[in-house]
Amino acid sequence: MKKILLTILFAGLFADVFGCLILFITDGKTVLIGNHEDWYADDAEVTFLPASGKKYGMLYFDFASEKTAQGGINTAGLFFDGTRTPFAPYNDNDSKEDCKCYIWKKILEECATVDDAIRYVEKYKIPEIEDIHVLFADKKGHSVVIGVYDGKLQLHKRSNTYQLVTNFNLTNPSYGDEQPCLRFATAEKMLAADSSVTLNNIEKILAKTHQDKLTVYSNIYNLTSGEVYIYNHADFSRKVKLNLSAELKKGKHSVKMDALFK
Predict the structure, then answer these.
(1) What are the residues whose beta carbons fall under 8 Å from the beta carbon of 147, sequence distance 6 or more?
(2) 3-class DSSP state for residue 79?
(3) CATH 3.60.60.10: does it fit domain 7-260?
(4) What is the sign, positive or negative, of the torsion defined by CA atoms of 91, 96, 102, 107?
(5) pTM value?
(6) Coil, helix or strand at residue 192
(7) DSSP characters over 171-183
(8) pLDDT digits (tens, 9 = 90+) for 20-41
(9) Domain locations in the chain as residue ranges
(10) Is the model's pLDDT at 17 over the cut of 60?
(11) With 146 labelled, which of 24, 64, 130, 175 sits at a CA distance of 20 to 30 A?
């Protein structure tokens, strides 16, 4: 999820430049998420926060210069990430409760399921929701993409074994004069031909949908096992595997992306 606090900046960006792709797939037993983080920053890192009181433990990816969670998973098996989409006004946003927090981190801290996350998005004021679509998924196999169209929140719940989101408005793909997204079409075609819920299958799709040097890192999350695989700068010949439970036992810490691959 790129620069989601900078809504003014977002309004002037083009989707084919600031990409990102998120895909969800399940066979009813295993739940996998694949994603690309496309941006110009070169200081990506992964941060681990153990559980505290009633708050879930989590890992999330961010940039050291920004310190805002771009996507992650918690110990309940809830995942989130988002993509930039054309600005769409949300009529009820200003009347919502202000949590005075970074809402996506709050959701990872306090929510266990997709339904929990939906309630938080419906409850709280989220200025950047007008500029993004966000995908939530949980280890039970539920997923939803939330965005805005025609002044209202739009909930796109999964209707297949997989769900995809890139950079167009799912309610109206041509909204904002968006051109057809070739990365979305490529991933959808590949999933229609092979919907196997395997690391290898997701790797193949990610390898065909990255944006070269703009893709800072890519991930595959296994929500069922709590494992995350990281790929640096669209190099799918190497990966680093992280286990959420094992990393959280080390306490609160952050690791630079480049250091993981040295």
Answers:
(1) 85, 88, 129, 132, 133, 134, 153, 154, 156, 169, 170, 171
(2) strand
(3) yes
(4) negative
(5) 0.93
(6) helix
(7) S-TTGGGPPP-HH
(8) 999 999 999 999 999 999 998 8
(9) 7-260
(10) no
(11) 64
